[in-house]
Amino acid sequence: MKGGFKSTGILTAEELRGLPGIPSEKRAAEGTVAVIECAEEFPCDPCESSCVHGAIIVGRPITNLPHLKEDLCIGCGECIVECPGLAIFMMDLIYSENEATVSIPYEFLPLPRVGEKVEAVDRSGTVITTGRVIDVKNLPSQDRTAVVTIAVPKEFGWDVRGLQLKGEKDL
Amino acid sequence: MLTTDVAVVGAGPAGLLAAVDAAKAGAKTMLINEYIEPGGQLTKQIHKFFGSEEHKAGIRGIDIAAKLFKEIDELKVDKRMATVVWSIFHSNILGIAHDGKSEMLRAHKIILATGASENAFAFPGWTLPGVMGAGAAQTLINLQRVLPGQRVLMVGAGNVGLIVAYQLLQAGAEVVAVLDALPYIGGYSVHSAKIARDGVPIWTSHTVKKAHGRESVEGATVVKVDKQWELIPGTERELEVDTICIAVGLTPLTELAWLAKCKFTWVPALGGYVPLYDDKMETTVKGLYVAGDCAGIEEASTAMEEGRIAAISAVESLGLITQQRAYALRAAAYERVKEFRIGPFGEMRDQGKRFIWREREKYEGRV
């Protein structure tokens, strides 16, 4: 029987570590970097050509998992909206002394506003901390996939992968 | 009697591409569709497609459809929307009906691109209003802009179940849970990850035991199942939901192919009974082609390629393009299709397709 994310939909820490799209602790400690949470071999490769720095390699066959060349990644975030699976995030663990930032592809309305406090959730949708929205990008070229960047306490950088607007559940 | 070179039945991804390629080659082409608008599933698919860069990956289905509609119009394809094909005679005459008026259409070549229907799933209470196919819910939210309910239970964690669950969230519903009787999630993990981080629990080895409510769904009893899919007593839990969406697979819509007396075979990996066809998508009835889900359940990207392959073969047979050109175009299409038929998800379908070709060859040997 298959376990882990194939049972729950949620990637475990162990499963994540085994993925070729996840940066090393060392690279992550150096600043903004892509985190590609693509765990399954199916035919898809727009991430590869989205990266003009050559930091994402899928190659052939097209079912290969994307491989992050972490030293080539400059953290520009261009790949986030090119992933049809919304599986790429940008993470900056040294944003400030106490905060990390996570950039999240976001396809819900209304969009949060810069400065707004939001509930920061992990891969299971559990609220684990409060985030502060520091950037919202929704350019025409993104084709309606907004990218919301939130600052969270540093220790949550690896775990925050989504957000909910405050009070959303009470509406 | 109406006449045309190529009649395409169904204006989804397969039919649209078939009509485009047939018309491009100079064939007088008629595109017949039961629904009032063309597009099939494409116009409901508001998510970005997977695939390769050269294969429209990253583009939303609805935008692919818009581009194809423009091409259809530019190519002056004769569009017959809200038109039912009610029978097929002598393998090349279609009975078509529109607005209460029936006509006969003689087509030199016919391409069936009729798609699929959603499988039903019966349980006590399944006839209550509020129980619907996931595709029906998707039509309501993305085409009609109507939210079917506030609290939804999704039954089935294949790609359809996962994608529609996500789109229901986008439309403003709460998805209470996604269930699947299998011990694992059948759909792509990127889809399950998206709804998981939006707080939707996915319960594998679970099924719906009962829907309750007086005049419509007010709740559901869900239960764990064991490896033999037997309900495990004592594991029931009550969910307060007003909508139950069923996403337990699709079946090819092949009535016209049966009426035309095509030979069929049973391929579970492709959704059930599918007509035999060769690598030109031609069935055992000469001049009758199939493409897309009615030729075996796959996805929009492969459906579009099959539509092209069928159209190329039809216009080749009409003498509108050379054999060499048709061969090269088909080879290019198969090269693009190949990418979707590899990997753990694609291999089974690839084997299914090859099985059909072999069966078709065997049949040819017999006659």
List the helices and strands and how they pair.
The complex is a heterodimer of chains A (about 170) and B (about 375).
Chain A: H1 5-8, H2 13-17, H3 25-28, E1 33-36, H4 46-50, E2 56-57, E3 67-68, E4 88-92, E5 99-106, E6 117-121, E7 127-137, E8 146-153, E9 162-165
Antiparallel strand pairs in A: 1-4, 2-3, 4-5, 5-8, 6-7, 6-9, 7-8
Chain B: E1 2-9, H1 13-24, E2 29-32, H2 61-74, E3 78-80, E4 83-89, E5 93-98, E6 101-112, E7 116-118, E8 131-133, H3 134-144, E9 151-155, H4 159-171, E10 174-180, H5 189-197, E11 202-204, E12 206-212, E13 219-224, E14 237-239, E15 243-246, E16 250-252, H6 255-259, E17 264-267, E18 272-275, E19 288-290, H7 300-317, H8 323-338, H9 343-366
Parallel strand pairs in B: 1-2, 1-6, 2-3, 6-19, 8-15, 9-10, 9-15, 10-11
Antiparallel strand pairs in B: 4-5, 5-6, 7-16, 12-13, 13-14, 17-18
Concise overview:
Chain A is 11% helix and 29% strand. Chain A has 171 residues and is mainly β.
Structure description:
The complex is a heterodimer of chains A (171) and B (367). Chain A has 171 residues and is mainly β. Chain A has 4 helices and 9 strands. Chain A has helices at residues 5-8, 13-17, 25-28, 46-50; strands at residues 33-36, 56-57, 67-68, 88-92, 99-106, 117-121, 127-137, 146-153, 162-165. Chain A has a 7-stranded antiparallel β-sheet, with no helix packed on it. The radius of gyration of chain A is 16 Å and the shape is globular. The termini of chain A are far apart. The model of chain A has no long low-confidence stretch (mean pLDDT 94). By secondary structure, chain B is α/β, with parallel strands linked by helices. Chain B contains 9 helices and 19 strands. Chain B has helices at residues 13-24, 61-74, 134-144, 159-171, 189-197, 255-259, 300-317, 323-338, 343-366; strands at residues 2-9, 29-32, 78-80, 83-89, 93-98, 101-112, 116-118, 131-133, 151-155, 174-180, 202-204, 206-212, 219-224, 237-239, 243-246, 250-252, 264-267, 272-275, 288-290. In chain B, strands 1, 2, 3, 4, 5, 6 and 19 form a 7-stranded mixed β-sheet that branches. A 5-stranded parallel β-sheet of chain B has the order 8-15-9-10-11. A 3-stranded antiparallel β-sheet of chain B has the order 12-13-14, with no helix packed on it. In chain B, helix 4 (159-171) packs parallel to helix 5. The radius of gyration of chain B is 21 Å and the shape is globular. Chain B starts with a strand and ends with a helix. The model of chain B has no long low-confidence stretch (mean pLDDT 96). The chains are: A mainly beta (171), B alpha/beta (367). The interface between A and B is large, with 44 and 40 residues.
